[in-house]
């Protein structure tokens, strides 16, 4: 696919983030108080993956239209891994105002829909509502997106 022309990641914004491995994804989503949640965001489609308790999350802004694979390559070069759906749910719960400023995507959990399309979670704001939804992994992300990432 090749890297996007002119992509220069900005310095990631870092937030402290408490990860709770006890609550189910459904509980995390409910705690986020979203106005809309894609019905395919389920424990079955995005199972819990054991990981370390994370204390800092970075929002990486590439400031360009990019493909998911290019984002993953940039994160790799920065020594970061992409956030998962569960981590995105934690982020949305703890920082509900961030998605009102810009959309936030997590490329670390990919669900393959029955039609074969690959989908990943993202937070965004509609006209008056906060949303947790699924975007197409194989399409390009607008320049306004930030990508949830963690140190490896």
Detail the topology: elements first, then pairings.
Elements: E1 13-16, H1 25-31, E2 36-37, E3 56-61, E4 66-67, H2 68-77, E5 80-82, H3 85-94, H4 98-101, E6 104-112, E7 118-125, E8 130-136, E9 140-141, E10 146-151
Parallel strand pairs: 2-8, 6-10
Antiparallel strand pairs: 1-3, 3-10, 4-9, 5-10, 6-7, 7-8
Helix pairs in contact: 1-3
Structure notes:
By secondary structure, the protein is an alpha+beta fold. The protein has a single domain (13-151), classed as Mannose-Binding Protein A, Chain A, CATH 3.10.100. It contains 4 helices and 10 strands, in the order βαβββαβααβββββ. It has helices at 25-31, 68-77, 85-94, 98-101, and strands spanning 13-16, 36-37, 56-61, 66-67, 80-82, 104-112, 118-125, 130-136, 140-141, 146-151. The strands form 2 sheets. Strands 1, 2, 3, 5, 6, 7, 8 and 10 form an 8-stranded mixed beta sheet that branches. The chain has a two-stranded antiparallel ribbon with strand order 4-9. A hairpin with a 5-residue loop joins strand 6 (104-112) and strand 7. The protein is globular and about 35 Å long. The model is unreliable at 1-6 (pLDDT under 50).
Key features?
single chain; 152 residues; alpha+beta; Mannose-Binding Protein A, Chain A; eight-stranded mixed sheet; two-stranded antiparallel sheet; 4 helices; 32% strand; disordered N terminus
């Amino acid at each position: 696919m090749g890297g996007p022309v002119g992509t220069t990641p900005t310095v990631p914004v870092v937030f402290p983030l408490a990860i709770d491995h006890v609550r189910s994804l459904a509980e995390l989503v409910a705690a986020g108080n979203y106005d809309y949640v894609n019905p395919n965001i389920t424990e079955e489609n995005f199972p819990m993956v054991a990981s370390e308790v994370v204390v800092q999350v970075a929002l990486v802004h590439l400031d360009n239209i990019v493909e998911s694979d290019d984002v993953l390559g940039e994160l790799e070069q920065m020594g970061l891994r992409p956030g998962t759906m569960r981590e995105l749910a934690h982020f949305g719960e703890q920082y509900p105002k961030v998605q009102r400023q810009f959309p936030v995507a997590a490329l670390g959990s990919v669900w393959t829909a029955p039609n074969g399309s690959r989908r990943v979670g993202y937070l965004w704001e509609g006209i008056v509502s906060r949303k947790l939804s699924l975007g197409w992994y194989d399409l390009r992300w607008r320049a306004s997106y930030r990508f949830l990432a963690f140190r490896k």
